[in-house]
Amino acid sequence: MSKDERLVKQITPKTEDFSRWYTEVIQKTELADYAPMKGMMVIRPYGYAIWENIQRLLDRRIKATGHVNAYFPLFIPESFLQKEAEHVQGFSPEVAWVTVGGKEELEERLAVRPTSEAIIGPMYSRWIKSWRDLPVLINQWANIVRWEKVTRPFLRTTEFLWQEGHTCHETAEEAEDETLRILAMYKEFVETELAIPVIAGQKTLREKFAGAQMTYAIEALMSDGKALQMGTSHNLGQHFSKAFDIKFEDRNQTLQYVWQTSWGMTTRLVGAVIMAHGDDSGLRLPPRVAPVQAVIVPISIGNWRESVLPAARTAEDALKSAGVRVRLDAREEFTPGWKFAEYEMRGVPVRIEVGPRDVKAGQAVLVRRDTGTKETVALDALPTRLLGLLGEIQATLFREALAFREANTHGARTYEEFTATVETRRGFVKSYWCGGDACEEKIKNETMATIRVIPLETEARPERAVCVCCGKEAKALAYFARAY
Amino acid sequence: MSKDERLVKQITPKTEDFSRWYTEVIQKTELADYAPMKGMMVIRPYGYAIWENIQRLLDRRIKATGHVNAYFPLFIPESFLQKEAEHVQGFSPEVAWVTVGGKEELEERLAVRPTSEAIIGPMYSRWIKSWRDLPVLINQWANIVRWEKVTRPFLRTTEFLWQEGHTCHETAEEAEDETLRILAMYKEFVETELAIPVIAGQKTLREKFAGAQMTYAIEALMSDGKALQMGTSHNLGQHFSKAFDIKFEDRNQTLQYVWQTSWGMTTRLVGAVIMAHGDDSGLRLPPRVAPVQAVIVPISIGNWRESVLPAARTAEDALKSAGVRVRLDAREEFTPGWKFAEYEMRGVPVRIEVGPRDVKAGQAVLVRRDTGTKETVALDALPTRLLGLLGEIQATLFREALAFREANTHGARTYEEFTATVETRRGFVKSYWCGGDACEEKIKNETMATIRVIPLETEARPERAVCVCCGKEAKALAYFARAY
Question: What is the pLDDT of residues A290-318, one digit of tens each?
Fold first, then answer.
């Protein structure tokens, strides 16, 4: 077995064991590694570079919609966390507690933030006095700790990175508008930059954020047919403003509690990129967030340092000037074949091969990671063609993921149909639901499928829509799935 | 007293009470606020925007020198922290400890990272096998917790933000080169972007990082005559590689411990910008890191919405296109006078006044925050002139800070001269030192001045250079000062 083959063979095929494939891809492509403490991970440079691209592209959108960044403390005194009853109930089982500072036992335990509503609330209460101070549109990039029992790299880890928006508004309507504006921004971001189609909708009351009035989410289908929540946007109503006394004098000189929202997306998105696009050979990264968009591999035969390398360097410079994230791999200790396999596994969107004959002909060979298609391009046309090709790859990945979701979204009208679909076909099951807690729970217990979202986009409703579980009149169409 | 006057008068003059001036400026310009827990702060949007500019400009330099970013866990098991003896001794008095996770008491306490050597070490031990894996050049942007007894916003807080570089090399020479390369990068960054001149040099063994072989630092003089450490770069030798078993097979197939460095700069830099450049009216922000580089204040008289506002908007667009961070403040609830005072306090480098007569004459008035100088400029020449002016302001702030440091750096040859200078004139005192721990300690105890650095740039040495404290033969010239 050659070295090249060995390298690729080391990854368990996705179709054989998805879960093992996932963790092997992460480790072998050096996206992340397990830390020596249970449930914790290290985001290695290759994985962190994807996160940096996500941050940059998302931060730009957050700012373009009028938000500014700030930074609030990592620790939250226990008494603050307890002020909103539902909030503390939801989060306290997951909190890591600091009880000793320096050499001294603390008088009050400090929670390592599981989310920041309870430390931001007291500050907003101090800063906001009048309607003139509103809206407050603040976002924070931060690390978060939740003491999870079952963890998986990127998807669910004891510590993760995220952005959390926390806004205050004069009216309930404005808060609802903000919640939905962010949800739309998240959807556009994930579809444009990560090439993953999502369904935007409401969560049920069972699945909402602890302390929220209403939670909205975007949900995607991973390539094993399980759903993944990609981001959430909460309308907090006045739950926290009443708990933390965040009041303002309105335009009629009356004291009112502010209306709030909060919303977040996390490093989980990196896991989504792996699971939505990867194949048996490893990663397939969307060009918009790929740390390396194109790798130039010089074919090292004969006097290649003289005959090939100068042309490869010229191509590298030209691509860099065109704004492409390009790497020239001229290392001598690895063969071209080894490099082909390595960058394929790492999901680099385009490989550029340049050999002695190519240089003579003034051309290079481009190989797409997503389709494997090869094409020859004149060296002086390389930047233009590559920019076009990266766009095509981004579009192809999205189209493929959308086609996969469509092929794996099934309607189910009877409970038998429903359970059979969940069991045998996976994916999303679209069914009508009575809105009752009992049916939601029964379905969850019996099928492990949960209501992922009640979609915002409505469909033509049949004349008689009944709950897939109890047969009573339906309240809404819902997307069900087994989920991460 | 007018509203404008009141606003400025609210700040205690710098010359009257520097420490009060500092905290008042921070609160009134909304750079930061005190959190409800002792020693913790909230970085508000205006302060965080300065930090974002620092991050962007520093991250660019970190990457240009070949480093990549990654993310390591927030928590460090106690047993890891204990592996390097000097390290644990130095940091354990300052550690916040997590002892409960979820509902369970932890078997082993987890330190909230006071620095990350002890969690990065075990990972490097796993990742590094051969000389081919070296150098490892990783940087991390993260939050850090140190349980400080005396705190002050930005300068010393229980939690702060920083970047920490952690590198591994094949040889001692390479590690020393890296340590000094970073020190030079820090100096260039602080002088270019923050307009603060610094002295680069070695720390004494007393003042070095706990676990380092040698610490280098850059030190600046604040405008009250006290020194501030701006950044440190440590040559860790093999202290941590031996403690964490980070070995590699060298080019001769022999197992060796790697040679390491670590280095960091923190949100303290924001405090330095305030203290180095601020005046009695508030902040004076260097244009390169100012969140708002120029504010356009329309003079709201007569039918200004028709006569002035369109021209102001055109100017705003032109400046934005030229890459200037500009804000047009067209709010009606505040007078131009109030705005002048507000942006002066907030340290916006240039104010652009546009009134009805200016528009008719096709011009605007530019007012420099640093000098108060006014000039008239044609509206169509505005972008070009403003870019030039921002450069001049940046240079002026640096020149002023350098002149201040030169005027406040004094030589002292006798101990009497030394103590009198420290007591009455403040600033840096340059004196020869025998290199002995006893003299260093005596000086610290008797004068509260410490050795800030032994400068890298050497001066012509007098024929007979003796220690300012004991009179024995001197080993080095040192910069002493009282410091933050």
Answer: 999 999 999 999 999 999 999 999 999 99
Q: How many CB atoms lie within 10 A of CB B441?
A: 13
Superfamily holding A3-277 = Bira Bifunctional Protein; Domain 2 (3.30.930.10)
- A62 in B contact zone (CB under 8 Å): no
Residues A99, B100: C-beta atoms closer than 8 Å:
yes
Task: Say yes or no: A126 contacts chain B, CB-CB below 8 A.
Answer: yes
Is residue A459 within 8 angstroms of chain B, CB to CB? no
Question: Which residue from B42, B93, B126 is facing A73, i.e. has the nearest CB?
Answer: B42
Average pLDDT (B121-136) is 97
Q: How far apart are CA A181 and CA A177, in angstroms?
A: 6
Contacts of A33 in chain B (CB under 8 A): 123, 126-127
User: Inter-chain contact A48–B70, Cβ cutoff 8 Å?
Assistant: yes
Q: Would the pLDDT of B254 be above 70?
A: yes
Q: Pick from B35, B69, B98: which is nearest to A73 by CB?
A: B35
Q: Which residue of A has its CA nearest to B80?
A: A36
**Do A355 and A301 meet the contact criterion of CB atoms below 8 Å apart?**
yes
pLDDT at A276 over 50: yes
CATH 3.30.110.30 is held by the domain A409-481: yes
Q: Smallest CA–CA separation between A303 and chain B, in Å? A: 24
| CATH for A294-389 (3.40.50.800, 1.20.1560.10, 3.40.50.300, 3.40.50.970) | 3.40.50.800
Residue of B nearest to A71 (CA): B43
B332 touches A at CB < 8 Å: no
Residues A220-233 pLDDT 10s: 999 999 999 999 99
Dump pLDDT digits (tens) for B49-83. 999 999 999 999 999 999 999 999 999 999 999 99
